[in-house]
Structures are given as structure tokens and as C-alpha cells.
Amino acid sequence: MNDNESQNSDDLFEHYHFIAAKGQEPLRVDKFLMNFIENASRNKIQKAAKSGNIFVNSETVKPNHKVKAGDEVKVLMSYPPYENLLEPENIPIDIVYEDDDLLVVNKEAGMVVHPGHGNYSGTLINALVYHFENLPNNSSNRPGLVHRIDKETSGLLVVAKTEEAMTHLSKQFFHKTSQREYVALVWGDVKDDEGTIEGNIGRHPKNRLQNTVYEGDKAEFGKPAITHYKVIERLGYVTLVSCQLETGRTHQIRVHMKYIGHTLFNDSRYGGDRILKGTSFTKYKQFVENCFKVLPRQALHAKTLGFEHPKTGKHLSFSTDLPKDLHACINKWRNYAKHAKH
Predict the structure, then answer these.
(1) What percentage of the chain exceeds 90 in pLDDT?
(2) 55 exposed, middle or buried (CB, 10 Å; 0-12, 13-18, 19+)?
(3) What does pLDDT average to over the chain?
(4) Model confidence over 278-324: pLDDT tens digits?
């Protein structure tokens, strides 16, 4: 790269930043980026490369440049990413607890936690920057955010209000000393009353919107992930389980439960929005369709959250009721299981 180009790259804003994983087969950079950037067309990526906006190991590259394991791939543009242009929005937040250092929020299903590809408004962060001034940024420049939960997952999140709280809480999540318990409704009758699922989680090689478990000699394609589960209630063709996270990988519970043969109920991304267990009766099909209508999302709720207060050192623990949609769906299955036995 000549001096002129290196000069220019200083004026550009970073939009994406990836390190090619171990075992990454040489792959054209446009195809590589297609696997990682949601809603990006090949055409757009090729255009960005031709305009000198794609860098591999700090050098601008053409669309056909081959990316290898360990390469650092960046997309830099002359304008800042949308998520850096945060619009405060007056969206109500369900605050469970608040003091000078932090707050605990009960997020409703359907709300995106932070702005990103395709979701630049209506997110929890848009709401937070409206209601609170000077929230500290995390390592990804996201104000207040210590951890996140998926858009269609409801439940508890802790938000830091000071730099000290951000550092302290982030360390607890990193060192796995925080406690997180989720309640999930899954397809099938889970055999054991409790168990632990271990399996490295990484991006799915064919479906870039999914993650998957990598095992054996492919384990290095994923990051270590551990989920402990307990059966709360058996409801015939579905089971209500409690899941405790030891690690916090993207879609961890959704991926791990599918891995052991118990996909989350109505999880469209992982195939749980089809009838995976049960009878072939039309009446049953109609019943399941009604359950999907009552709960139009994956059956997952972040029910409890525990951590050490960053200032007082006191252990705080919070718990929420199941949201109405999940509660209604579980009740439907309860009634069905009761009548199915007779």
C-alpha cells in the first residue's frame, strides 16, 4: 500500500472487522465477507473492494483476493457506521432495579438490544441513551451494554452507568462468575432430569445466520460453550427446562438444545417452527399452529440474573415472571398433556 493509501485509511471509519478462523480454507474475500455480513449482496461487497474499502492485513485488496486463516479483514468506509450515529428514542424501558452504578432491565421479546445491520432504531440502546446521559461505552462502543440477549428472547439484562461498573461487570461475565438462568420450552421429552451440554459453538458453514456445534477435529472452528439444564415440567411432546449458562456464546441455548435433539419451540431460525414431535392428527396440527400464534417467537426467557455489585461487593439476584405469551403457550401444552393422558 502506498503512502497515499495509508494516509486515506486514517480518514476512514471501520464498519466490519473479522479475523479468519483457524482452518479457514483459502476463500475469495467477497465470498468470505458474504458469510459474515447479514443482508450484504455480493455486488455491494465487490463494489466496496473496487473502491478500495476492503483491507486484508492493512492492505487494500481486490474482490478475488484469497483470505487465509489468521488474516485480519476490515471494511472501512468514508462515513461512520449507523450504530455510531445513535438517535436517542423515547421508548419505555421496564426497569427492575436501578442505582447510581447500574440498572437491570426486563427486555420484551421483539426488541433488538443494539443497533446493527437492518435495525438502526427502536433498539434498547436507542432507549437507554434517551433516558440516561453519559453511559460508558463497552469494547464495541455500545453504551451501557455488559451483555446481550437475542431480539426474540425476553428477560433480564444488566446495564452499566459508570466506567467502573462497566469494567467490573464485564469481568464477572468474562470470568463466568455471574449467574444466568433461562427458561425454555423445547420439542420432545428430554430423557434425563438434568445434564450438562458441552460443545464448541461457531458459525454454521452453510447458513450464515445460524451457529452450530463443532466437535472432534473440527472443534477449533468454534469457541468452548457449556450449558447446564434441568427439567422443570414434562408436557408430553414438549418439555419445560431451566438452562444455566456457564459461557455466553451467541444463540448458545438454542444451538445446544438443538444439538441434543431438543430444538426450542417455535425457533424459526433453527427449525423449531415446524412440528418436530407428536401425532399426525389434523386436530394436533391445529393445536400446535394455535400455540405458534400465541407465542410467535422462540420459547426462551432470561428469567434470573445474579452478580456482585461493582461498588458494594454485595451479591444481587433478580428474577422475573414469565411473559404472557410464553405463559399462555405453556398453559396450552399443560391442558393438552392432561387430556392426552385420558
Answers:
(1) 65
(2) buried
(3) 89
(4) 998 999 999 999 999 999 999 999 999 999 999 999 999 999 999 99
| Of 239, 243, 208, 215, residue with least CA distance to 334 | 239
Mean of the pLDDT values across residues 327-332? 98
Cell readout for 134 is 453519559
| CA gap 231, 183 in Å, rounded | 10
* b/e code 77-115 from CB counts within 10 Å (16+ = b): eeeebbbeebeeeeeebeebeeeebbbbbbbebebbbbb
Total-model pTM? 0.78
* 316 contacts 306 by C-beta, under 8 angstroms: yes
Dihedral of alpha carbons 153, 168, 170, 243, sign: negative
Sign for the pseudo-dihedral over CA of 164, 133, 106, 38: negative
- The residues pairing with 16 across neighbouring beta strands, listed in sequence order, are 75
- Longest distance between any two alpha carbons in the chain, whole Å: 80
54-56 and 59-60 strand pairing: antiparallel
CA 28/CA 5 separation, integer angstroms: 22
Active site members: 150
Among 285, 290, 291, CA closest to 265: 291
pLDDT surpasses 50 at 271? yes
Helix, strand or coil for residue 4?
helix
Three-class SS state of 41: coil
